[in-house]
């Protein structure tokens, strides 16, 4: 009959209890290490065992247990036909993006610095300082008049950039994003040197119908033909409806290994609403965030 293990919680002496607990923990760690070594030897002889183990031991995450969304469009022919005729279709027929970036009224230097980072990310971008008497509708009209394809308006709160309104011109749509976790390019750890080459674009996990629309709006900000010699890439990574924006450069260390050098800036976007056409206070909203949407942690909209 095997000896009954001692339960540290039943020991009254604090020092003995701590000592027994540490010994038991160390013994468990040794047993686990031995099991891992033995398993590694067996899997080295028979790789099928490792494939079987990895296939069976899939961790449960919020992403792989998300609620089914009826608007998921992996390969939908009807959606493709609609997108071929929507407001963004001109970009996909070869039109070169031309972007105007401006700010809210009376913004601070921090907001201007963020706009400078945006100008460095997206090619063919112009920054226009906003005057006191320039209303949103007037800015949109002037941007259309000067053949801009997109308008970005950066808002700030307490001298910190906190939102971006993205308007595709001339017919929309318009989207409003909350901005957080901004790290300027100049403060990015170990940042590389930015060049003027057109970057590649990576979009991750924009799977629903709403996500497709937002992804296409981001696509319309970057020229369709990247300049690969610059090795620059801009990533919009959607995870749990938070959009993480990063910029890197490929670094080829040798003929087999490749690394990434971050160029900055870093920031995170969260969609708050999507409106048909160019922005208007009385416009028709295709989607709008409500606080009760976050009750279920396994429900995502992008």
Automatic annotation (TrEMBL):
GO biological process: maturation of 5.8S rRNA from tricistronic rRNA transcript (SSU-rRNA, 5.8S rRNA, LSU-rRNA); maturation of LSU-rRNA from tricistronic rRNA transcript (SSU-rRNA, 5.8S rRNA, LSU-rRNA); ribosomal large subunit export from nucleus
SMART domains, A to Z: Brix
GO molecular function, one term: rRNA primary transcript binding
Pfam families registered for this protein in UniProt: Brix
InterPro entries according to UniProt: Brix, IMP4/RPF1
Brix domain mapped to chain residues: 97-280
Gene Ontology CC, one term: nucleolus
Region Disordered, residue ranges: 1-75
Bias type Basic and acidic residues, positions: 40-71
The protein's name: Brix domain-containing protein
Phylogenetic placement of the source organism: Eukaryota, Fungi, Fungi incertae sedis, Mucoromycota, Mucoromycotina
